[in-house]
């Protein structure tokens, strides 16, 4: 993991980290963070906070992702119909055994190619092979799991 360098910044790293944390954690506006820091005696412009977020935000997110606990190895795949702009499309999502959403996909059709794309992304992103994959009885899932060599872990649900 690379270290974040705070050289040549007027404020100490703890103030920069706190400002970014306030902005990202509580979904505040830049001016709200500016006011909160002013209450603690720091005269910092919202533009400075924006620059800090642009400079350090991705590095913070990357370090948090590394420390994030691994997902449960029991995955549940499901799809639903969603209306966007008056057009009915499919929303596919994967949830682990603890209810954490792992990935989502909005394909134009409900076919095996879309299921393979979702599973490929999921396997790459999670970095682990699931112990079981629960799906509904849509044939696209069983075909995709067969092609990926995960058919033995497939548990069709209701």
Describe the overall structure.
By secondary structure, this protein is of the alpha/beta class. The chain folds into 2 domains: 13-67; 74-156, Nucleotidyltransferase, domain 5 (2-Layer Sandwich). The protein is built from 5 helices and 5 strands; from the N terminus they run αααβββαβαβ. A 5-stranded mixed sheet has the order 3-2-1-4-5, covered by helices on one side. Helix 1 crosses helix 3 (46-67), helix 2 (30-39) crosses helix 3 (46-67) and helix 4 packs across helix 5 (139-147). The protein is elongated, with a radius of gyration of 22 Å. The protein starts with 12 loop residues before the first helix and ends with a strand. The mean pLDDT is 87.
Kindly list the characteristics that best describe this protein:
single chain; 158 residues; 2 domains; five-stranded mixed sheet; 5 strands; elongated
């Amino acid at each position: 993991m690379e270290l974040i360098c705070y050289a040549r910044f007027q404020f100490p790293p703890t103030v920069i980290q706190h400002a970014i944390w306030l902005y990202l954690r509580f979904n505040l506006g830049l001016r709200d963070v500016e006011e909160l820091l002013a209450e603690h005696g720091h005269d910092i412009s919202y533009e400075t906070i924006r620059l800090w977020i642009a400079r350090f935000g991705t590095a913070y997110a990357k370090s948090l992702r590394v420390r994030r606990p691994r997902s449960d190895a029991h995955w549940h795949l499901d799809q639903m119909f969603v209306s966007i702009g008056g057009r009915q499309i499919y929303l596919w999502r994967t949830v682990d055994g603890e209810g954490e959403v792992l990935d989502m996909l909005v394909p134009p059709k409900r076919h095996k190619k879309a299921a393979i794309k979702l599973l490929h992304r999921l396997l790459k992103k999670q970095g682990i092979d699931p112990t079981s994959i629960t799906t509904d009885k849509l044939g696209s899932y069983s075909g995709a799991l067969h092609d990926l060599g995960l058919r033995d872990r497939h548990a069709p649900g209701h």
